[in-house]
Design brief:
4-stranded antiparallel sheet; Alpha-Beta Plaits; alpha+beta; 70% helix; elongated
Amino acid sequence: MIRHALAEGWLLLRHRGLVSLFLALALAIPIGLAGVTLSVMRWLEPAVGTVDRANVVAVLLHPHMGDAQRAAWLGSQRRDHPEWRLEVVAPEQLAQRLIHWFPYLKDLLERDGGAMLPPLVEITTAVPESVAVLERSPAVIAVGPRTPLTSLLGRVSRGLGIALAAASVVLLMSAVLLAAVWVHLELYRHADEITIMRLVGATESTIRGPFLVATAAPGLVAGALAALGTSAVVEALSGMAEVLGLPGLTVSPGLLAAQAGAGVVLPLAAAVITLMRHAAVDDE
């Protein structure tokens, strides 16, 4: 039965080679786009995480302040501005943030252990402009932007991910529908042969086998093309990011394996459903 399925499936592929290639490309493009989207969104996680932090203002304190002086300053700010929520960022945490976005600082920051970094305080407030009063404080050396720039960046990043994901879903649904239509047309093309096979007692698995093989082959090609395309695009984007001093993008082996599996599973699922519906109609 397997030999029959492979032989007949190969004949179907030979007679419909151009359509099979088109099906493989139609599957590879959305699967590859989905992989690139997931990789980019993973890279943009720090930016997306700022969506809910629109009113966070960074304040750098004087590095020569002692722990007691810093604690006293924080206490006075909490008393004078109860509407503010102050959060002290540890030097180690600040160093990790800087290393994430500026990898070339890694050796310097790890060597000094973050000792050279000034204390950072993040103030969450509904009125970021009110933090401007701290610019006159001798304990403060700099007050960060008081505009929701980080929130805007987060929303843009999230919107970009949603748009790419939506495009991937639409294209993938179209490719799966194409696989179903291809099987449907082939079934009608070979309707007489299928009828004869059923009359002589052929099992449904024997009848369906060639169509499943002919559908799985383009799926294998699509999965391989999607994985290769994702790797190439992510590598190119990573090179562009590193030129700008940003961390490079990576693609996980698990994602590449999932793409290869999706290339086979999705068209096969469409083929199985189409074959089952066709068999049910013939039985009626």
